[in-house]
Amino acid sequence: MMSRYFGIAAVQMGVVPWDSPATLDRMAELIETTKTMFPWIDLICFPELCPTGVYSFSTPPPGVGRYDTAQAIPGPMTGRFAEMARRHRVWLLPGSMFELDGGEIYNTAVVLSPEGELVARYRKMFPWRPWEETQAGTEFSVFDIPGIGRFGLAICYDGWFPEFIRTLVWMGAEVVLHPALTATADRDAEVIIEQAQAIFNQCYMIDVNAIGGMGGGRSLIVDPNGRVMQQAGNHEEILTQAIDLDLVRHVREYGTLGLNQLLKQLRDFPGRFPPYQEGFAQGEGFRHTGPLQLPKSMKNT
Predict the structure, then answer these.
(1) For residue 48, which of 21, 72, 13 has the smallest C-alpha distance?
(2) What is the CATH number of the domain that holds 9?
(3) What pLDDT shows up at residue 185?
(4) List of residues 6+ apart from 263 with CB closer than 8 A
(5) pLDDT, tens digit, 9 for 90 and up, residues 205-263
(6) Spatial CA neighbour of 234 closest among 263, 255, 254, 213
(7) Phi-psi region of 55 (alpha: psi -120 to 50; beta: other; left: phi over 0)
(8) Closest C-alpha among 23, 8, 9 to residue 211
(9) Stretch 59-64: mean pLDDT, rounded?
(10) pLDDT (0 to 100) of residue 300
(11) What pLDDT, on a 0 to 100 scale, did the predictor assign at position 2?
(12) 289 in a domain, yes or no?
């Protein structure tokens, strides 16, 4: 049986500040550059909220609203994505966008096939509270690439929750595509988290961060053994990597580094996990925490 090799490009880029049309044009240029230089690339990923042109956590300039690009899916923006995917015959994850539905705004990732079809949509389930105001999604998302395998979608802060990635793997994901938008000091922790999630779940993690006012770069690709295959710096960069999804199957069968058969042992575990039966709010470590809000002081009150 042939190995399931698949070419992935993680495009670490900055937006044209507060200019979605110009940013979309730049994304189209980088897709063309990637496919011209690396025609073996099958899927291209961009950072979280890249198409929106949102640039910083500060107040937008006069006449510009943070959510001005919010729109229905499908809509004009996803139509542009479909054209990009069709033109270059490539699977496309264009980061995420602001989706408007029923008066609510979601941070939503979409995936387009090489035929331009919308094959997956995922609304971020863990917005970065209390700073991120978008509505939380409620449904996990995985999709199949014929002849290759199953991919799962996560957006930035989702990756901080072990339960989230584990659920995608439980649903069959072998690769987790993880657009991010992190410019804060916790990027060091996120790099570690990507490796940890790959180890805990014996899957590929594809993390693509932005640069500039909303991202500190350091995008990375991690294999199912937890090894960093590639990591970017803090400038515009395109990580290109051929991954082999049969390695996922091998690691899950024979163990991480030939040692730890984690998913098998978890499958066979005869006990139960109380947080999932009784609810997290009932746990001793959760009940004594305060409300989820922006702290005004770090002093004990």
Answers:
(1) 13
(2) 3.60.110.10
(3) 93
(4) 169, 201, 202, 252
(5) 999 999 998 899 999 999 999 999 999 999 999 999 999 999 999 999 999 999 999 99
(6) 213
(7) alpha
(8) 23
(9) 90
(10) 67
(11) 60
(12) no
Domain that holds residue 189: 5-55+68-272
Task: Name the token pair of 250.
Answer: 């091998």
* Burial of 73: CB neighbours in 10 Å, binned 0-12, 13-18, 19+: middle
Within-domain flag for 298 = no
Q: What is the pLDDT of residue 109?
A: 99
| Residue 209 DSSP one-character state | -
In a domain, 138, yes or no: yes
- 99 domain residue, yes or no: yes
The tally of domains found in the chain comes to: 1
Q: Which two tokens stand for residue 56?
A: 């910083």
d(CA 47, CA 30): 13
Judged against a pLDDT cut of 60, whether residue 130 lies above it is answered with yes
Q: Which phi and psi angles does 167 have, rounded to 5°?
A: -65, -40
CA distances from 275 to 148, 172, 177, 279, 282 (A): 35, 23, 27, 5, 8
